[in-house]
Amino acid sequence: MDLAAWYTDFAEREARDSSPVYERLALAVAADPELLALLGTLPPDKRQPNLLFGVVRWLGGPVDDPAACREFVLTRWPAVEEQLRVRIVQTNEPGRCALLLPVLAALPQPLALLEVGASAGLCLYPDRYGYRYGEHAVGGGAPVLHCAAVGMTPPSGVPEVVWRAGLDLNPLDVTEPGDVAWLDALIWPEHGHRRDRMRAAAAVAAAEPPLLTRGDAVDDLAALAARAPRGATLVVFHTSVLYQVPRPRRDAFVELVRELPGHWISVESPETLPLAGLPEPPGELLHNVLALDGRPLAWTRGHGQALTWFG
């Protein structure tokens, strides 16, 4: 997919019905040869819409007016380019725990959680949050994560977690204001509810920080997994991470994670992680696939707002 098509696809399949600001902005970038030429000088993994828009917001630039955003990027390109080259998309969306919960609750307890691409580790606390699947409430913690679920009976309770660890190339620290500011910049402009729950989840993590290890998903996963306590079910999971991993390394990761003891939960797009036996997705918007040990179970929306079970 070329760069203009990438931004158009982001606008039409990801931002549409979720962020009118980013839909307009992405379409404007897709039609702007000068901006596309600048982005084309960057490595492929540094050209993505979420990264560009997050960097503009982090630098204090406007995103609600495409013309003003264009002017900001063009006149501040050296600063924008510098941040694009050193930062990565680390959207730490605790709402995705609502997608994981039905699977986690059904596994043999207690659990040892290991998240690949953990960012600040906010998805390592599924036992601490509250959930609402329509009118069905699960757990009593905060923040409360809302998910429109179809085709499944929500679990009766939260899992028992006795160990939580994360692996990331650049782990973030929720006690560092600069790291929290980057997490905030990655949240889409209209999503005040996501901003509120990110900060509430950050308070949970700061009260009992997880074990976050700087490392590579292939080279360092087995060593970290070996630190999980005996007697607990190891669960390696990742959500919307593998698209940032080059295909050969992605394949090596899948081969490795299948060999580890315990279970593997993935929430990735079907283009990123192809899986056999998928039904048609529920609509034209971008949907990810929730899978357990490589077996697809449900279509999901990117921030955990909806789940359509078919497994």
Annotation keywords:
single chain, 311 residues, alpha/beta, Rossmann fold, 2 domains, 11 helices, 12 strands
Can you characterise this structure?
- It is built from 11 helices and 12 strands.
- The protein is globular and about 55 Å long.
- The strands form 2 sheets. Strands 5-12-11-10-9-8-1-6-7 form a 9-stranded mixed sheet.
- The longest helix is centred in the middle third of the chain and has 16 residues, at 192-207.
- The chain folds into 2 domains: 3-86, no CATH class; 94-309, 3-Layer(aba) Sandwich (Rossmann fold).
- The protein is an alpha/beta fold and 311 residues long.
Topology of helices and strands:
Layout: H1 3-15, H2 20-30, H3 33-39, H4 49-58, H5 66-75, H6 77-86, H7 97-106, E1 111-116, E2 130-133, E3 136-138, E4 144-146, E5 148-150, E6 161-168, H8 177-185, H9 192-207, E7 211-214, H10 221-225, E8 233-239, H11 247-259, E9 263-268, E10 288-292, E11 295-300, E12 306-309
